[in-house]
Amino acid sequence: xxxxxxxxxxxxxxxxxxxxxxxxxxxxxxxxxxxxxxxxxxxxxxxxxxxxxxxxxxxxxxxxxxxxxxxxxx
Length: 74
Hints:
Distance between the termini: 24 Å
């Protein structure tokens, strides 16, 4: 199953651009990459055939483990 969420954009000059913290627009917001329940965040990209998914808090979840982009491991 593939699931994606469209990113929010900000328009200040008439040209859309991504805002820095636009990945999680959920209310309540998803857990951060540092929190113990980080894998409860919403999936924004899923590739089960490759065995991984990207969560909106920048955590990559693999079938066997998860790695946080904020930890500089990816």
